[in-house]
Design brief:
The chain is mainly beta. About 5% of the residues lie in helices and about 55% in strands.
Length: about 170
Amino acid sequence: TRITIAIIINCGFRACIKSFDSLTVSIITLTGSITGTNNVGGLVGYAVFTGNTEAMINNCSVEKTTVKAYRDFAGLVGYAKDVTIKNCTLTNLTLEQDLTHDYKAPNTPTTFGEYIGRSEGGNTIDGKFYAASAAELQAAVNAATGEATIILGANITGNVTIVQKPGVKITVEG
């Protein structure tokens, strides 16, 4: 089933969006706590952009919030693919891993982070590339032009090849 959402304003505590053609989330402040097992975010649990327009989360804040889950959880988006995040803040955020509910298998990888728990594709935060794996870091390095910043969303293991390009300056944060 495809859910098409154009805009979410002043929504409830969280939204879970499985697939959409267009998404804009803006001007929302959330406080409280949320508990789940997988793909849990303070604002959006699961955001996978599959359409032809941009998926964007704008001008949001998550404050005084606890997010608790087994895997793929974060203060803003639990799982994100090709999402743009702009002007969002996280304050007094607590992330807790719930080790009592390994709902899949004992060796299932766990990913979590401040803004994005599990990242795939071309996610950006305030115009900066977001990389949570060696493959994403490689893609960000390859796509970089001019002055680019890459935010490391996790401890990344693996090989990344960096070829110097004229006029390109890459800064890595995280």
